[in-house]
Amino acid sequence: MKNIKYIILTLVIIFTSCKKFLEETPYSFKSPSNLLQSEEAANAFIIGVYDRLSAPNPFASSFRQGLLIVANFGTDDFSGKGAANQLYGDFMNYTFNATNNNLDLIWNNFYSGINQASGIINNIPTAPLKDATKTKIAAEAKFLRALFYFYLVRMHGGVPLVTKETTSLEDLNTKRASIQEVYQLIIKDLTEAAPSLPEAAATVPGRATRGAALALLTKVYLTMGSYGKYKSVAGYEWVNTTEAFKQAVNEGNKVLSISDYKLVSDYGSIFNPETENGPEIIYSVQMAGDATISDEGSFLANLFAPASIGNMDVSRGGQNHARPTRNLINKYAATDIIKAWNIANFGYNGCIEVLQNQSYAAKFRKPCGYNGQHFSTSINFPLLRLADVMLMVAEAEVEANGGVSAPNAIILVNKLGAIRHSIPPPSPMGNILDFIFDERSRELAYEGQRWFDLVRTGRLINAVKSTVLSTATTSAPANIKPIHYLYPIPQNEIDNNSAINNSDQNPGY
Amino acid sequence: MSINFTSKFKITLILLCIGFPVLAQKTIRGTITSAKNQETLIGVKVAIKGTNLGTITNVNGEYNINASNDAVLQFSYLGFVRSEVKLSGQTVLDIVLTEDAMNLEEVVVIGYGSVKKRDLTGSVASVSSEQLKDAASVSFGDALRGKLSGVQVTSSGGEPGAGLDIRIRGINSISASSDPLYVVDGVPIESNQSEIKTGGSPLDQPSINPLSYIDPNNIASIEVLKDASAAAIYGSRGANGVILITTKMGEIGKTQFTFSSSGGVSVFNKRIDMLSLPEYAQYIHVRYPENPLYTDQVTLAPIPYDDSQSINWQDQLFNEAYVQNYNTTFSNNTDRNKLFMSVGYGNTEGVIRGSSFKRLSFLINTDTKISEKLSISLRSNNGYSNRIGQLYGTGQGSSSGITMRILASRPLGPSVVDSDDSDFFSPLRFATLSDKLNRSLTSLTNLTLSYKLTNDLTFKVLGGGYITNSKNTTFLSKQVSNVSNDNGLAALGSALTFNWLNENTLNYEKTFGDHRITGLGGFTMQQNTIESYFLQATNFALEINGANAIQDALSIPEYGSDKTSWALMSYLGRLNYSYKGKYQITGSLRADGSSKFYDDNKFSYFPAVALAWHAGEENLIKKLNLFNQLKFRLSYGLIGNQSIRPYSALSKAVSVRYFSGNTESKGASTVSVANRGLTWETSETFNAGADLSFFKNRINLTADAYVKNTKDLLLDAPVAGSSGFNNIFQNIGMIRNKGLELILGTVNIDAKDFKWTTNINFNVNRNEVVELGTQSMILTGRLVNSQVAPNIIKLGSSLGSLYGYVQEGIYQMDDFLPNTTTLKSGIPSFGAPRPGYLKFKDLSGAAGVPDGIVDAYDRTIIGNANPKHFGGIGNAFSYKRVSLSAFISWQYGNDILNWSDYFLSGASYNNLKSDFYNNMYTATRPSNTVPNYADITGRNVPSSYYIQDGSFVRLQNLTLKYSFPRALLKKVKVSFLDLSLSADNLAVFTDYNGYDPELTSTDPQNIGTDFFSYPRPKTYTVGLNIRF
Fold first, then answer.
1. Of B523, B593, B720, the CB nearest to A11
2. CB-based burial label for A16 (10 Å; 0-12, 13-18, 19+)
3. DSSP string, B167-208
4. Residues A22-38: pLDDT tens digits?
5. What's the pTM?
6. Which chain B positions have a beta carbon within 8 Å of A207's beta carbon?
7. What is the ipTM score, two decimals?
8. How far apart are CA A342 and CA A360, in angstroms?
9. Which helix (H) or strand (E) element contains residue A58?
10. SS3 track for B351-403
């Protein structure tokens, strides 16, 4: 029995080391609390927020695919027959409801970005980093958080306003805020971010700049003003419309004064993967999709571009899920040079363009000799362009002046027209607002602007009902209703958020 | 002490007296053999009744004993019926012992020890090596199908070496694993299959059986611990049941060589009737008139084809596959040293071209008695397996698996000039130009030192563990369609698992008069570390060497590595008290500490208690002379489950990348929020059972009823997306499994030369989601090409419910206003219907009442993937040296969502099932049950249209065996030789219209759907078993 004491001794030694034995060591992942502890880690953390714009997985949640659909389909410019599914058909035909998977994915993806951005914004002041780093990264996080909320508020109205990062199960449920509260945060974030962000020339493509923050702010004010004026969605009664339009002009003019931005004469070069980060881009979602990268690229060429002809090799062509409508085609003059880039009546057979009696959305075409994935390309998705800002300033000025005199607007429109068109705009322009609107269609076709433009100005229903398709059929004109000025709050959010219930859903869903 | 001493002294004196012959004594000798195989039996106890005199048989089964002329000799041997013979003058007495069907003295392995079968207080099912041997199975799991009560063996595919899911008493968990804990020779092995997967999409590896390295030939017995009394000693890992695998040791006192081999052929004859080329061409001519291959673009007439140009891909791809297995063992056992070695090799080809499973195994087991007190034993079980599979072959959930290609590919024979480049899509070409290999080396070794501290107390230290190194290699040629744009693709992945274990136990065993106490106390530690990496190369400039030379690829777009680790530290104890062998009580307690949980939840306690009453030993019942055994058992206890991935309670950020221009930046993205309160999943288990034997053990019945409430489910529960997260691991909900298990064994005929026995097991399990936190339901699972989840976890329903729309006929012309596509009022719409489309029931709407629109609100439970009952029937007949056994298994009342049908009923250019084409809706033949192919994009949602009854009866195995006469063999110095003929999976009786109703997806969150599973073949084998 004397051996017992050795056994006991052994066990005692083992027990004392037990605490350490049962500790978890993270080997292959990072703990978020460590991510602001070094310059390198902080940079990785903000990159993680940018990544939400082109989130690889699921691609339907980001500008890789899902947002291209939401922001482009179901307008009078661009539509198609669409497969009867939640990804395409529901948006082309206005048959989506609260259980639409695509809306759910986008919602979750944006809120993931918001959560991470808030984590940066709230914790970076006490982080052991250089002041310059703190200021810059916090400003980038604010720009991105504002961008996410701006999409959410336009798509869904007042959404849960989460400004504190989720750290425990206690923080999970937040009720819907008012539209006004969401805009207040967006404006605050952008206003605070702009001065701390670098100039365009001093930054790498795809990172936030001062110009981007100001251009986004311009869009925010213009959108607020339009909703306030046209009342397409309830909840904008607090907006001082004239003031908002004036603010849009102010902020827009700041952008126009930045010398980094210039109009380029070759319209196609803006969308060519070789030259796409040129001086006309203020902010675009960066895509990578050459032969070596399959999960960081954009689906837009595949969704929109002309088809390949003859064989199954679709390496250059797209699947043209949607096509430009007669409405859009008719907005261009026959000799309009941007028409030739945006609307094609050919398909591809390798590098050869083969005439077809179809019109395709050719803006995001793969160049000849494109060496990459057929479904996922490196073509960026522009969110803010100089031409867009010019047209916004023009529109805001007209609106701010009550639609009467707008001398700068005329100058801006003419300036853009001069570089884009073979024919100058008519003089006088007639209804200048309508002209600016059409000009936005022509200039920004398929760039995810039209649906938001129609919604904020209350034109959506009439426009969709007037859709004349070039070939395919859609049931959008029959299905569209006033409820469609807002998308529903995803049913999953209602089901899983104890602070939101079915009665908080947007009307009609 | 003094009393003891005197009584011992007296006995000795008495013995001495008897020792001096008063009566006439002579020497009796003889040989004892087994009735079953005429083998001699070594170590049989031969005793003279009424005395303490006796001997045992020697190596040749012979004995020698001095006895009086009228003495009664008793022959007893473990596992055989005791025999008594009254001497009547003979000097040679050969005895044939028959095996005891209800062998209560048999020792059954339980957790951290073993007990006599008689003394079991818990619910334990057991299979011997004999029962495993009959089937030509690659893995022991396959051989278990239908044989054990309460154990359901399922798999998602019939590919050789494919993964198996074993469910003991139902599904107990949603997000944590429902796999049982495997314990091989004392070493717990977690079979979390995801851990040996490497690499990500698009080359997900199908599941591989983690225990496939074990050669079934080396298994001595498998025990399944089912209730709390049996399994709670494994604490936090026992909730899904425990499977104990014990490998072989040789028999005492013999040096033996054995050699067994079997060889055979597998065939798959079932064919699904698809359209031939003339029919297919006619169909495509109507559907896609613009295709010049089927329609003359000038005259618009169909292009004529004849049958000779058609090809049936099923005939091309399903081929005869050969199976071969060899196993050699050597054993040399003395009283002090035991040694058992085994080397095995097996090669099982798959019935689809280019798939196979090879295994090389090596086992060495030794037991050495160093002194009376100290002994050492070694168990070393090693296996190398090489699995060559068809890419996506077994996958339930990939869109381009080989089985799908076989059925869906166009029936264009090689003679057809094909502008569609059908060669590109040829399944034959796909099968030959893609490779998927998994190679895996596992070594499981442990050393046990056992020291007798006193006569009653033994201290044991076990040190050991296992190492698995597995490597996956995938290659797709640039000539294979779905990756043509990758220009050749190779994926390599490797995972190294290192798991070590230390166990220190004290065993106590003491009998005082009518009281018997056995006790166990122990402390164990186990740690598991997995390191893996993968990389994927595309764009091969030169693909001659495939995945073996990825330096020939121009890019390596995907790569990564991972390391995870968990640790478990436990204290365990068990006490068993028995009074007069009639009343037994067992109590056990395990305290488990896990690295996966935090703070106060680090440790958890799992107690269990069981009572057993041997009613048959009570005089009152004994007098009835009816029962050979009558025993009642009752148990209650808590068992845990902690099989979630490590780090689940922590907040995590993973690497992502973002491109600025063409410059890649690495980012970090938060993917989970901490839940330090995460705790163990606990199953509260009640079990009541009875063991009955009648009519001289001719009828044996075991019945068990149980209720298992699994609480604090480790659920990866969805949370509000606005929190920034989709799911968080939380302890939410409760599942209840309750059921009944019956095992009936009968000896129907036991004549001199003819014997017939039957074994039946019958199982009923009902599963219900009892609590789900704040949720009322969670949708789970996925279907290829559909965005609508097919499974639902819903309060009050079974886990395994299928969810979707209810079909209510087909839209007819009459449902529409004349000459329009507008529905008449009152007819519910689904999408944009046309005549011939599936019509679904309008059950509800946004306001909770039918609203004329069929949408998400109209989905309901449309099926249950759990069977109402299942089981097996085995019959064994033997006549002299010939024996025949037949085993039938069944499953009744489970539903299958046959998603394969979706792809064979109009998806793009896919071929159609003849059954669909001949019955589908057309304007002139308006079916109200089968839709038109034009409906295909609208009906890619789960609905009752795809639900089928998955009930089946399977003739699983038929074996005919002949044992050569001993006398004949003796001349050639062979001690034993038998030959057998065996047929596996001979016939399946089912209404299910897919290949096999048993092969459906098995993940609890995505259960009951069939998507082109790799079918199971019929296998005919010839086997030889020889022993020297």
1. B523
2. exposed
3. EESS---SSS--PPEEEETTEEE---GGGG--S-TTSPPPPB
4. 888 888 888 888 889 99
5. 0.85
6. 660
7. 0.89
8. 8
9. none
10. CECCCEEEEEEEEEEEEEECCCCEEEEEEEEEEEEEEEECCCCCCCCCCCCHH
